[in-house]
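Internal QA ticket QA-208
Title: Verify multi-chain structure generation after dependency bump
Assignee: T.L.

Test input:
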Amino acid sequence: MDIREFVEQSIGHWRSQRSAHHLAFGHFEAVQSEIDITSLSIDAPEVIELCQTYNIDPQTAVLPFRMSWEGQSDWEDSEAVKGNCVLIPVPDLEQPNRGKLLRERGYAEEMAAVGEYYFTDDGTFVLTTSYDRAAAEEKIWFVNPNVRCRVSLIKTSAGTGVVTASFSSEIRQTSKS
Amino acid sequence: MDIREFVEQSIGHWRSQRSAHHLAFGHFEAVQSEIDITSLSIDAPEVIELCQTYNIDPQTAVLPFRMSWEGQSDWEDSEAVKGNCVLIPVPDLEQPNRGKLLRERGYAEEMAAVGEYYFTDDGTFVLTTSYDRAAAEEKIWFVNPNVRCRVSLIKTSAGTGVVTASFSSEIRQTSKS
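Actual output:
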């Protein structure tokens, strides 16, 4: 598995079930959402702009994409969870199973962020991102071409304590409803 | 990571939050439980008996252990979930990061089962077990010495469709309450 194959397999419309475990309190949160992953051109204005923020030559990027999601949490008074984000993989030239991932919006915090990814020998995409006050570690793998699993951990910025652990199972929807 | 280190790190008393996603229906189930993992002697009667079932020389086993759990599901009318199981790792003599895991009771089905495990290059324990009517794939990894994550998938026996995907976050309890 390399980043090109991984992004190509990810393009599409997905139905997601996500469970978040808030570890300190033993709380569960359940979120149902729809996710769209669409490819972007290497010369799209939002791609060029995000590359400039990090001083990256857009020509070194591979398959930038946009992820959009819309969902509903079971937490009281929760509003619809909705958003979208531009993501740009920039593979390492010397180690093709590693690279950077630029994101327009962070996972742990709202600001733009750059994470480091690599693929394990069983094809799992592992992404670590450091933020001001937190660090995120995500693992994403395909069980088959139409089922993806994702585990996301939010840690304290020192990286030792785990604050939230969440798990998504994502099923490809063959026709968009 | 090898099986000896993995089992040694696992010994202890854990508080577990588990979310199961029943994919066909989009259902969520939340389970809170306490898990005890205790080591067993290589010559304990239950270890010898399970080895005999699979025609395995107990001398080739490494750190057999018993896992006990007691918990509560949020499903209506659910009874307390309680059980225990003897597990026996039998490493491959030639490939130390692989082996078999004998279990007294299966995960997908109640009968005894033998699974195949290996460790990925990032220290994740991956176990696949085939049953009569189902197959299970489990991934377990340590985020730090006191936090374990576990993803368990139950598939149709052909191994293509995913029926249930569940995620546990497990936190070591330093004193047993």
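Spot checks passed. Chain B has a mean pLDDT of 91.
Status: verified.
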